[in-house]
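Here we describe the complex-level prediction in full. Unlike the single-chain runs in Section 2.1, the two entities below were treated as one system.
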Amino acid sequence: MSEPVAELSGVSVAYREHLVVRGVDLAIAPGERVALVGPNGAGKSTVLRVLAGLVVPRDGRVTLGGDPVASLGRAAIARRLAAVPGQASLPFATRVEEVVALGRLPHEDPFRGPGPADHAAVDLAIERVGIGSLRGRDVRELSLGERQLVLIALAVAQAAPLLVLDEPTVHLDLRHQVAVMELLADLNRREGVAVLAVLHDLALAAHFFPRLVVLDGGRVVADGPPARVLTREQVRATFGVDLAMLAGPAAIDEAGSELTAGTTGR
Amino acid sequence: MSIGARTLALTRARVGRPARVPGAAVLALAGLGVLAAAIVAAVAVGSVAVAPGDTLGILLRAIGLPVHRTWSPEAETIVLELRLPRVLSAVLVGGGLAVAGAAFQGLLRNPLADPYVLGTASGAALGAAVAVLIPVRAVFLDLGLLNVLAFGGALASVALVYRLGRGSGSLAPLTGLLLTGYAVGSLLAAGLAMTMFMSGSNLRQIFAFLLGGLEGSSWLQLGFAAPLIVGGSIAIVARARVLNGLLLGEEAAAHLGVDVRRERAILLALASLVTAAAVAVAGLVGFIGLVAPHLVRLVVGPDARRVLPLAAILGAILLVLADLGARLLGEIPVGVVTAVVGAPFFLALLRGTRSAYEL
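The structure predicted for the assembly as a whole is:
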C-alpha cells in the first residue's frame, strides 16, 4: 500500500489545559476523498490545523507524505498540503488572477519571483475551477460563492497532493454548495488530489464523499462509508437530532441549520 | 447616475487597470528618470540661482566624470555642500517612508496605516521635544541631540507597543497591536504636550520637528541615516513575498509557507528602523508614507514585489518636489506642503473607492 499523504496517530491537542482532540488516528491515502463531520467544538478545525503544523499536538505523531510535520519547514508543508483559505476581506483591490497566484508562493524562487511554470499553474488552476470569466475583476466585488471558487483555485494552483478545506460551503447558496462539492469530487477523480474537508451539512457530505469521519468530543467515533457511518443511532448520539430531518431532497438546506440549532442545544 | 452607481463605476475603473501594465521595470526606469530630473531641478533652484547646465556639470564632476569647469567655486559649494545633501535627504526620507508605509499597510492589513501608526511618531516627537528642553548643547558623535533622541524615541516606543501589544489577551494580534499603538501614542502625546507647555521660547523648534523639514540636512546626518534607510528598505523589499502572503490574512499566509510570527517581527523591526532614521533626519513628514504606496497600487496592483520599489521611487520624487516647493515658498515646513497636497488627494482617493475599503 502506498504511503498516506497525511497521517495522525494517537494525536491529542490541548488549548491551555483543555483537551480538544483526544487520541485521534486518521490516515488519508493518496487520491482519497474524506469528509470530517461532527458537532461544533468537536475538534475538526483543530485536526486540520495540526495537520498543517499550525498547532503542535501534546501527544502523538503527525506526518505529511511520510515525514513528521515538526521536521518540515513552513514552505515544505505548503508544498504537501494546500489549505483553501477562509473568506477574508482583502485590504487592497486585488484581481482574481492575483489572488490565485498567491498559491504559487511556496514554489516561487524567493528572489526572482514567479517563473513560467508558476504562470502556467495559475492559468491551469483558473481554467480547472472554471473561473476564467472572472479574470480581471476585483475579488472584493465578487459574490461569496464566486470568491469561494477563487480561493479553491488558489489552493489548486498550490499543486499539493492534499487539499484541505474548512467548511467550504458555509454561507453559500444551494447552487454554489453543490458546485463546490462537484468541483472537489472532479478534482479528486481527475487529478488524483486527496481531499479532506470539514463539512457541516451531512447530506452534502454523504452524497459527495465516499468516506466520512465523525468527530465528537475530540475523538473519532465513526469512520467509513456514509451508509455505515450515518446510521440513525450514530447521528442521534453525535448530533442529538433525528435522522428524519435529513430525509427529503428539499430539506437539505434547512437540515444544516436545524443541525446547528440541535447541536448548540445539547 | 446615482451616487452608489458612480461609486461602483469608480471602483471598477480603479480595478480595471490595464491587464498588462507596462512592466514594473519600465515604470521603475521612467520613475528613476523623473527622480533624476527632480534632483537636478531641486539642486539648481534656490535663493542663489545656478544654471541647470552648471548644476548638471557640478553633479557629474562630483561623481567623477571629466566635465570641464565653467562655474564659480561658490556655485560649487552651494550645490555640493548645501543643496545636494538636502535633496538627497529628501530622496532617502521620501523613499524610506514610502517603503515603511507600504510595509505597515501590508503587515497590519490596513489601508489607512502609515509609518507612524505604531507609535514611532509620538516617540520621536517626545524625544525631540526633550532634546530641545535640555539646556546643554550636547553633541553625540557630531550629531544633534535632537536627531539622536528622536531616533531613540521612535524605536523605544515601537518596541514598547510590540511588547505590550503581543500579549493583549483575546484580541487578534493585529487589532491588539493597533490599539496598543493608539494607547501608547496617546500617552506619549500627553508627555509631548507637557514638554511643549514647559518649553517656553523653544516651542518653535519643537513645532519645526513636528511639521517636518529638511533644512538642517548635512552630509554627516546623511552618512548615519543612509545605511539604515537604504539597508532597511532593501531588506524589506527582499521580504515582499511575505507581504503578499498576508493579503489573505495571517492564517492563509501560514498555509502558504510563511512563518508569520517570525516574519512579522522582522518586518515590523525593519519598517520601524527605516521610519526612525527618516524622522530623525526630517521630523514628522506626513502623507508620503500613506499616499505613495496607494498611488502605486492603483497602477500595478497589490503585488508587494512591484509596490515596494516603485513606492520608494515615487516617495522620493514626491518629497524632493515638496521640499522644493517649501523652499520656493520661503522655507515653510515641508510637512505643511505634503499635507496640503496629500490630504485633498487622499480624500479624493477615498471617495472614489469608498465601497472598496473595508476597515
